[in-house]
Amino acid sequence: MFVNQYRESLLNSVGLELDIQSAQDNRLTLSDGRVVKDFLAQYGALPFGHNPDFAIAEIDKFIKNKEAIFVQPNIHKKVRLLAEMLSGQIDKEKYTHCVFTNSGAETVEAAIKFARLVTGRKSILSLNRSFHGKTYSALSATGSNRFKADFIHDDKLYEHVDSEDLAEIKRKLESREFAAFIVEPVQGEGGMKVIPSDTLSSILKLCKENGTLSVFDEVQTGIGRLGAFCAATLYSLKPDVILFSKALGAGMSPIGAMLYSNELYLSEFDKKHSSTFANNVLAATMGIAVIQHLTKDDGKALTHVQEVSHCVDECLEQLSAKYPEHFCWQGAGLMRGLEIQDSKAVSNVFINFSQRSGGLAYIICSFLLKHYGIFTMPLMSRPCSVRFEPPLNVSKEDIKTFFAAFDEVCNLVRNGRYDVLFAHLIDMPVTDLPPPSVSYPISVNNNIAQIKAPIPQLVEGKKFAFLIHSTSVNEFAHSYCLSIKENYTAEQQRQLGNWIMQISAIDFNPDIAVEFGVESSTAYVNGMLLFSPISPEDMMALPTKERAALMKEYLDLAEKNGAEIVGLGAYTSVITDGGNSLVNNRQGRILTNGNSLTAMAVVEGIRSMLTENAHRQTLAVVGARGSVGRLSVTGLAHNFGRIILVSRPNKARVLLSELTKALLSSVLKTHDVIQPDSVMDKIRKWLFKQNPGVTDARVLHEQILEVIGTLGLEAIESYEQSLSQADFIVSATSEGKPFLNTHYLKGSAVVFDAARPFDFIRDGNRHIYEGGLVHQPEKVTYSDCNLIDVPAGVNLACLSETIAVALEGVTVHQSIGKSIDYNDALAIRDIARKHGFIPVQYTRNDQGERYEHVA
Fold first, then answer.
1. Residue 46: left if φ>0, alpha if ψ -120 to 50, beta else—which one?
2. Among 583, 632, 569, which Cα is nearest to 816's?
3. What's in the keyword line of the UniProt record (predicted)?
4. Do residues 392 and 225 make contact, with C-beta atoms less than 8 angstroms apart?
5. Residue 367 pLDDT level (bands cut at 50, 70, 90)
6. Which helix (H) or strand (E) segment is 753 a member of?
7. Sign of the CA dihedral 184, 118, 112, 92?
8. Residue 238, Cβ neighbours under 10 Å: how many?
9. Distance in angstroms (rounded) separating the CA atoms of residues 522 and 517
10. Average pLDDT, stretch 307-318?
11. Mean pLDDT (the chain, rounded)
């Protein structure tokens, strides 16, 4: 049984799932006896930690007196008292009405309903990066897309603005379309961004002038977290509506409250709004107790928050001064966002993606828990940010303990010591590693492509995004930073890769991996690699709806970052039928799946190895039904005299029929050179000599299918039988894992493996050529290492096709589907050549043992 399968699986994978046996103040006692310091405080819902004595005493008294908890429709005196106490902390003359709820999100829902009824308007305005809850209206008001998906929020009646753009705020409010402008004074999930008091004051003024209700969402900032009762009292501001929740329940009972002024009262709202468990007496008792505890002894608890906040400020200033390039922070009081940034890692796919996606923040939290007994969590809407939100009664000693530990995290990041940060994920003792003081660069590559500034003499192409994902553990290890490559054994690198693959099956949201620019003789262009850690097996196992959701996330990300052209790398092409399912994408991106240039690179690579005897040689193709395989068959049928299509059991006739049809459609219109006695040459002669008068394509197909074996094309339902006869082999399946052995190949056979992951098992006994490699216009890599293990200036054809058509500035989709016309593929090859992308050619090495790249 799962309660939240995603969250449970994620926290288990990163080592943040706690088996808590008991809790007191900010100490959590785990089932294994460890005591952990809590700096999360249930996202601010535990104002005085776990099980505070004053709250326990009130609950004991409540139970002993057998007080009623639920008394609807009556309003219990304690409920009324709590309302009066809330109002009294701000302005009892102004805030004369209170609506109680059960959570922060429900409180926001009530406020939106209330504002619409009062104003007669529907639209709601809020800030970008805000968070107001995950129920329908609250999520719609939230200014972050992280928690949104189609059908679960309203993108028509809710608009968002930047807090810094007062001119835009003024323009929107003056439209007089908005019922409410809802604002968090400190954006909790948005990185703990503080909205300046003068901005808040201007918002209140503009709202009043334009008939829009001003709403302060103080679900997190309320009840003492800023060192005042709430932000409204801290800044002496009085919005129309103030929302409370979280800490109001003293960490013992869920409760929320909406305060509003007398002049806004509307009986219709009272008639049409209620909540079964709102107004419950136990929750009100907790609310009364927490306000009393917060304000007793002349506000001693609030004074403590102010004092320890100064201690926090000092710690943060020290970290900022010590790590100016790697650390920054936002926030106020006891709600802070601590952000790690490693600008030296922006060209490393592994680390940069981890930073941008938030994955590194989870690992940092896991590291703090494992090595320092500190529990906290990331900020979900701010990349690589960690939450500091302890109980209000946290001690200065605990604060210093926390920041001493965080200092070590900053030091590790500054020194490139991700090997230490990640070691606990594979149960590797950090004592096995060099001391943390030893520094490592992220990589030692000096040939990394950089983003291009405008080049006046060149045409600017269309910005591109190429979609990639994990294809194998070995390839992922290729992108590790230097400290991991040097200090982990091959087995430990494999273990880390397996851990990444495991967690990627749980959370596989894509993000930017690297950004770079490319320059040809006539144009320049900038682009990015968008990466998801998901494996081919897990991607193929996704239900149809989740596949569509993943591709939408990719395309939304491309659109958000200004990419006009999107290349479908690896299995993003497979799960979209070669891009067919995306051609009408609502983001309006131009697509290519990269298969044309991949196939042409295979064709031209093999042609560079051929002699005049190619018509006497045999080619075998595995995966001929796919677009790369089909184009490879078509292209190499211009050269080889015999081609074997390697078929699955009981599929030979279908495969032979499809490929015969493909060759028939190309033979009379091909722009390529047909060599004498090749399969294409035989088919052309058969057409001219045997059936000169037949023009019906269906009849021709049926007739030639009966004799196609005599023309050099056949299908065999046995890998061993097929491959053992071949002089050259092309493999381009979507199997998702290596499955072909080399032991039954001819000794002289040449194998081109264009599959990602590879189809052939690399056993070290045979050299397998990487299918689909292309020389680049510049001798650079597009991250601190190539996506595959090839030299700078060489890369994958699928990526190269995306860059080439972006440089060309194409306006229509390219290489879509499985049945790509061969002449269209030739046209893509020519565009690529124009911009300096040349398929890799091969020559025999000095020993004559195998072929090597021609530089």
1. beta
2. 583
3. Aminotransferase, Pyridoxal phosphate, Transferase
4. yes
5. very high
6. strand 750-753
7. positive
8. 16
9. 14
10. 98
11. 95
Residue 252 near residue 216 (C-beta atoms within 8 A): no
Rounded mean pLDDT of 354-366? 95
Does pTM surpass 0.70? yes
Q: Is the pLDDT of residue 609 over 90?
A: yes
The domains found in the chain, sorted by start residue, are 597-853 (3.40.50.720)
10 Å Cβ neighbour count for 673? 9
What would the two tokens of residue 650 be? 């009981």
CA-to-CA separations, 534 to 110, 468, 470, 476, in angstroms, rounded: 40, 9, 6, 11
pLDDT in tens, 548-560: 999 999 999 999 9
Dump pLDDT digits (tens) for 476-517: 888 999 999 999 999 999 999 999 988 888 889 999 999 999
The distance between the two most distant Cα atoms of the chain, rounded to a whole number of Å, is 107
Question: Distance (Å, rounded) from C-alpha 323 to C-alpha 320?
Answer: 5
- Give the pLDDT confidence of 269-280 residue by residue, as tens digits: 999 999 999 999
Q: Please, which pLDDT band fits residue 146 given cuts at 50, 70 and 90?
A: confident
pLDDT category at 472 given cuts 50, 70, 90 is confident
Give the side-chain half-sphere CA count within 13 A for 292: 11
Identify the burial level of 79 via C-beta atoms within 10 angstroms of its C-beta, where 0-12 means exposed, 13-18 middle and 19 or more buried. Answer: buried
Q: How far is CA 343 from CA 137, 406, 511, 514, 618, in A?
A: 38, 19, 16, 12, 52
Q: How far is residue 371's CA from residue 809's CA, in Å, rounded to a whole number?
A: 52
DSSP state of 456: T
Q: If we measure between CA atoms, which residue out of 212, 210, 233 comes closest to residue 223?
A: 233
DSSP per residue, 41-68: HHHHT-TT-BS-HHHHHHHHHHHHTT--
Check residue 848 and give left, alpha or beta (phi > 0: left; psi -120 to 50: alpha).
left
Kindly state the average pLDDT of the residues 444-452: 91
Average pLDDT of the segment spanning 616-642: 97
Amino acid identity for residue 36 in this structure? V
| Residue 530: C-alpha distances to residues 462, 765, 773, 777 (Å) | 16, 35, 20, 22
Alpha-carbon distance 156 to 163, whole Å? 20
Q: What is the pLDDT of residue 699?
A: 84
Helix (H, G, I), strand (E, B) or coil at 186: strand
Instruction: Match 């001929």 to its residue by tokens.
Output: 624
Q: How much is the average pLDDT of 149-166? A: 95
Residues 6+ apart with CB under 8 A from 770: 752, 753, 788, 790
Output 90-93 pairs: Cβ under 8 A, ≥24 positions apart: 90/229, 90/230, 90/232, 90/233, 90/238, 90/242, 90/259, 91/238
Per-residue pLDDT of 219-229, as tens digits, reads 999 999 999 99
**Residue 813 in contact with residue 579, Cβ under 8 Å?**
yes
